[in-house]
Design a protein that fits this description.
4 helices, alpha+beta, Alpha-Beta Plaits, five-stranded antiparallel beta sheet, SH3 type barrels
Length: 183
């Protein structure tokens, strides 16, 4: 029994994911819920996240938040899979459309976003910090609040700030959340 290679390729194409990504608009802060329910329906999903450092009393803490709040990318896992079910998926408000046509996102753009996500998520606080040596900063530390100084050095845990205290230059070690760039 011989098999037609064109028919075999067509059958395999039915099980290949679509090269087109669609964009859905989610309910506020429900991107992860939408992602889970889209995956239950056998859609391939992508929710780009980025590392952000939240300022806490204990110092900066890394958190991951959606790169594009309220948006999620998805594509059918099979060629014949309809996207009409997405509108009623838990966590989804609507499909992003241009007129009557759903918005399509190029796979190349999705790959670039993935690379940006990987690069940013591997970065340290020092690499993501907007504090650089020589910049003028204001202190938010309770005892020194409002004083102005110059950043001398920046490390992953601390910022060395040069202050003038009692007429003498003094270097003070502070945590990142205790200083703010002056305008």
């Amino acid at each position: 029994m011989t098999q037609n290679p064109q028919i075999a390729d067509a059958v395999l194409d039915d099980f290949a994911p679509s090269p087109r990504w669609y964009l859905a608009y989610t309910k506020p802060r429900q991107e992860h819920i939408a992602q889970t329910h889209l995956q239950y329906q056998a859609f391939e999903t992508y929710l780009p996240l980025y590392k952000k450092f939240k300022k806490t009393e204990q110092g900066p803490v890394a958190q991951f938040e959606p790169m594009f709040p309220r948006y999620i990318l998805f594509r059918p896992s099979r060629a014949e899979q309809s996207i009409s079910t997405v509108r009623s998926t838990k966590g989804i408000t609507t499909l992003v459309r241009f007129g009557f046509e759903p918005a399509l996102v190029n796979d190349e753009l999705v790959q670039r976003i993935r690379q940006l996500e990987v690069d940013r998520n591997q970065a340290t606080l020092q690499e993501l910090s907007n504090l650089k040596a020589g910049q003028t900063v204001f202190l938010k530390h309770t005892a020194l609040a409002g004083m102005e100084g110059f950043v001398q050095s920046v490390s992953s845990k601390r910022v060395a700030v040069l202050l003038e205290i009692l007429g003498r230059p003094t270097v003070v070690q502070l945590e990142h959340h205790q200083v703010e760039l002056s305008q």
